[in-house]
Amino acid sequence: MLIDARNLCKLYGTNEVGGAALSQISFEVHEGEFLAIVGPSGSGKSTLMNLIGLLDRPTSGCLVFDGEQIADARPGRLAAIRNRDIGFVFQSYNLLPRLTAIANVELPLMYAGGGRARRRLRATAALDAVGLAHRCSQRPWELSGGEQQRVAIARAIVTHPRLILADEPTGALDTASGKRVLTLFEDLHRSGCTVVIVTHDREIAQRAPRRLHIRDGSLVADERDSESPRMGLRLAAGACS
Hints:
By secondary structure, this protein is α/β, with parallel strands linked by helices. It has helices spanning about 45-50, 75-85, 100-110, 115-130, 145-155, 175-190, 200-205; strands spanning about 5-10, 20-30, 35-40, 60-65, 70, 85-90, 165, 195-200, 210-215, 220-225.
């Protein structure tokens, strides 16, 4: 089991002027799963993603990541886990405009340490995995929206994380680019990654074999399809395995 969440609550503000973003949410995520967290705007799905991505802490409840209780973990420990085990993909790409594609992909490796040659090799492999090795010297403004999102995915997988978290990853893309990005996530799942996509789009959510439905801060449904065989995209050095 990679994530074990029990009775998670997240409160903002005070009881008088604030409210519960999440209330009594419990679920498990096993290694190698592909699931979608789906719900309308304001339902609490992004708040839940921030909790399981260790970007925020629950107000109450228990959250265990890979066997480690993280509620009382120090900020430095949480940062280390995020850098080592979690890759993030956002709707707005979050690429640095002055850096080339390969330099953007290398950024997480710089925080982790290691030599420049090794960083460049791994970044090239990640870009190749998303079909953009030939665009490694381009800057974000020279790439299409779909290409920028694929660079963002390459950056997310370059550290060989165990968990990929994607928040509305196709929201800024045209239909064709969005389908290609979703296919990349499916390939990553088949090669062994644990993938969690946050979306308000039920059609996109249906691409995932499991769907957690969030409404008004509560988990209202946990749908599962039959399991499919794991085959697909693989990176050098056993990424996401």
